[in-house]
Specification:
By secondary structure, the protein is α+β, with helices and mostly antiparallel strands. It contains four helices and 22 strands. The radius of gyration is 40 Å and the shape is flat.
Amino acid sequence: MKNISKFLSFLLVAVIGIGLCTVVFINRPRVQTVVEPIKPRYAVVDTLTLGDYPLSTILYGEVVTPSNYEINSHLDTDVLDVYVKEGDYVAPGQPLLQLDTTNIKREIETLTNRRENITISKNQLSKENELHQLIIESSKNKKNASDRMYERKKVLREKQIISEDALNNAQKSKFIIDSEHARENIKKELIESSIKKLVQDDENLGYDLAELTQDLKDANVKAPISGRISSINVTKGHRISKNKILLVIIPDDNYEVHTLIPPMYTYSPTELKSVQSSIVLSDGRSISVRFEHFLPQSERNPYGRIAAFNISKKHTQFFHINQSVTLNTTFPPIKHSYAVPSQSIYYNKFIYLVNESNQIILTPIIRKGSFIKEGVFYSVITFTKEPQYKQFLVSKFPDAVDGMHIDPHNGVDND
């Protein structure tokens, strides 16, 4: 009897427990999962603006005492005159030597005459090409008329209206006219090929003349820095060859900062004289330094030229030899260039332009340098030829550019 009572009690407790669990489950709070809509990503499109943009960068250098400056020859020629002697003090820009320029001037005259002849030939061929274009248009009209005539003759022959001989004559006439048209096209291609070759020859001569003009300037050897003449290795009438050391200058006893100018900065020494560069000291003071010259041995360095910046005597007390310094440097403006956010540039060589049909076009650029404006890095760029479109892609999606569509609300949809 006791066992039955225990069993009934256990059964009652179990039924009550199951009932309570059922009530709790039915009345549990409903938690709804909210699915947030996927927000579309947009790549911003902006407009290229032509202007003159200055470059600013940080250069890393080392404080050194100036080493002796060797002046090398760039020409195979004779020394006409020597204006200084050993021990003389020279200032920047002071004439030191005069080299013979007879051969250079003769070669410049020869190349100039060749360019003039090329220009005359190019103009004649251009006129001939314009005339030949009229001949081709006439020939094309004759060919089209001949084609139509032959098709009509074929139809008439099928209807037995004309003889087989008449059709054959029409075919022969068509063949002759087609051949004449083909010959005229070949002549036009030959003329255009000749013009293209003349243009290339003219361009090559232009490079040669520019180099000879520079050689003409180099023949008047001037002091690049101030200092004393340590040694002179040539005399009047001396025959010299390229890369010969002409003389050596001991610089003034100042400190210099030697720093690498990256190859993208193609400024001449004269242009770099206007560079604004300063070194910030640990106490917050800013010391201005001035570009002096490039180290001769670095002129053909593929990684850039080593520049010497002069520290004035009154500021040498703040530095010591082999001290590493940073130079906050602003270069002269790049004329007729464009400034774009640096994130817009791909692989340092390309930018995406956007045409009127909202298509994205990968376009090569030449990166000249950069600057910071309101915390944003900008790159200064030029194009190998004037860009056809002015809109460009600002935001960067390297793996998903293909297939994106320009959004009418100034963006590129990336879904």
